[in-house]
Write a structure and sequence with these properties.
alpha/beta; Rossmann fold; six-stranded mixed beta sheet; 9 strands; 25% helix; globular; glycosyltransferase; PRTase-like; glycosyltransferase activity; transferase
Length: 169
C-alpha cells in the first residue's frame, strides 16, 4: 500500500520560516563582524544558501558559506568542509541542516569544529522531528513536528523542477 505524501509547508511558509530564523540569527549575533553558515550536504547547504540570501539583506556582518560533507552511516566522525578549518577559528559558526531526526547529523556536524577555538556554535534546522537518539538541541527551529518513527519528512528545496515543500510520507 503506497504511503500518501502530505504537504506540511509550502514555498511561502518555508520562506516565512527562513525569514524568521534569519532575524533570530541576526539578533543572536548583532555584535559580530562575521559569521560562518555551515550547511550539511545537500539540503542543509541549500537551506544555508536561503538563509544567507536573507541575512545579506538585513545584516551588517560578513557571511561566509561553508559546505560540510558527513558520512552519517559511519560509527566515527568522517567529514570534510570546503573551506580551511582554520578560517573558522574564533568565529561564530551556524550549523545548518534541513531535518533533525535522531541528532546524528547535528552531532557529527558539531564534531567538525571541536578541535578549534570558536566564539560560539549554534545549530539551525527547518524541521525538528523530536526523535533524538543523541543529546543535541537546536538553537533555531523552523517547525517542531511530532511524527511517528515510521513516517518520513522530506524537504524539497530547488530540486528537480519540483516546487519547494516539506512533505510527510
Amino acid at each position: 500500500m503506497p504511503t500518501k505524501r502530505v504537504l506540511i509547508l509550502n514555498h511561502t511558509q518555508i520562506q516565512q520560516k527562513i525569514n524568521r530564523i534569519a532575524y533570530q540569527i541576526l539578533e543572536d549575533n548583532i555584535e559580530e563582524q562575521e559569521i560562518i553558515l555551515a550547511g550539511v550536504v545537500s539540503r542543509g547547504y541549500r537551506f544555508a544558501l536561503r538563509l544567507e540570501k536573507v541575512l545579506k539583506e538585513i545584516a551588517h556582518f560578513k557571511i561566509t558559506l561553508a559546505e560540510i560533507e558527513l558520512n552519517k552511516d559511519s560509527s566515527k566522525l568522517e567529514s570534510s568542509i570546503n573551506i580551511p578549518i582554520e578560517a573558522c577559528q574564533n568565529k561564530v559558526i551556524i550549523l545548518v541542516d534541513d531535518v533533525l531526526n535522531s541528532g546524528r547529523t547535528i552531532a557529527y556536524g558539531l564534531g567538525v569544529f571541536l578541535n578549534i577555538p570558536l566564539k560560539k556554535l549554534r545549530s539551525v534546522v527547518l524541521i525538528d522531528r523530536s526523535h533524538k537518539l543523541f543529546p543535541v538541541a537546536t538553537d533555531f527551529v523552523g517547525l517542531q513536528l511530532s511524527t511517528v518513527l515510521k513516517e518520513h519528512v522530506e524537504v524539497v528545496l530547488d530540486e528537480n523542477n519540483e516546487p519547494d515543500g516539506v512533505y510527510l510520507n
